[in-house]
Amino acid sequence: MPYRWTNIRTVEPSVPHDNIVHQPFSLWWAALAASDETMQGGPLVPAWLRLFSTHLSTADQIRLRWGGDLAQSAELRRAYSALYGRYFSRALLASRLGLTDFVSLRTNKTRLPNGIVVERTLKGDIPDWIAWNPAEGAYSLCEAKGSLTGRQADFMTGQPACIRDGKRQFGRVQVLDRSGRALATRNWVAANLWSTDGRPRESVSLLWDPPADGTVISEGDRQQHADGMRRRRIANIALRLGRPALLGSARRLGGALLRVTAKPDGDGMPTKVSTANEDELLRPIERPAGELHEGTYAAAMISAFGIRSVVTSEDVAALMLARKSGEPAMLFGLSVDSLRADQAIRRTWLSGQGIAAPDGLSLFDLHRVEIDV
Questions:
Q1: 304-332: buried (b, 16+ CB within 10 Å) or exposed (e) per residue?
Q2: Helices 74-95 and 48-55: crossing angle, nearest 10°?
Q3: How far does the chain reach from its first CA to its final CA, in angstroms?
Q4: At what angle are helices 48-55 and 27-39 packed, to 10 degrees?
Q5: What's the whole-model pTM score?
Q6: Cα separation of 60 and 76, whole Å?
Q7: pLDDT tens-place string over residues 290-317
Q8: pLDDT tens for residues 342-357?
């Protein structure tokens, strides 16, 4: 999955001047977000690995641009725009802001470890996720938007309607600790304006941070909350990995574990695009890996046929058979190290073969990595 160029604008009330950066964005981040959403019981779209390649523009293979308006009917266009908005928003929130352990919010009440509750207070749409912000030691509420018909000027210099709608959603929920106190959260709306062959404008991703009040988690309690969010995220995907024992306090792995070795290869990053300064060399915010990645994973195979957890010897045999085929297939992995409470946050490993994120989630091209059991 190559890089595609896009415009990323970040707006924070605490920063006097917001910024807009034209830079490459790796589609591996979007694919990882899509796979995690699928594994956690979100939109069941295992064929997203085909959709990216099917919908991406073939006329412009540099910019983040779709080949058409995603679908013929208005209803499907809105659905695809929202679905891709969800995937790309999560990818931006993780890659640009470092948020981890996304948990989808339930309609009225979402319970988290350590007695944390996210509770609806008013009617109307609520944010998509609660996530953990390691840099701030705080919870973050997050809302995703995708726009096919919005105005580029609104995204570049102003506040599009979808941002205003997203910001209002934060006022309809509250995050409470075990004593019923409202916690302060860093809240983010991530909105994507799509570019298509029929709408050849610049694509823009706008990250907006509305302020939030409440009790700040003490520094001594932050690691406990971070571990709790990780436990909740792991519980959400345990059954899809075919490992219900992960739900228990002992978190027994059981079943086959895969040792994955992936090589660095630059991820197909372009070095230059047409800009005001033709000699300008632009780089992505993350550095492509310069070393091997080796990790042990509880894993699942994602293909056009769906999700197959790799637990038994029969599952391993099916995985190895799929590796010999030419059909697109991905290997989704939960790092064994991520099950340890004292896991150290490391930088992202990213290559043309896949991505390994700091929160223990990884996604690889099944045909391009070495696998041992």
A1: eeebbbbbeeebbeebeebeeeeebbbbb
A2: 100
A3: 26
A4: 150
A5: 0.89
A6: 23
A7: 789 999 999 999 987 788 999 999 999 9
A8: 455 577 899 889 999 9
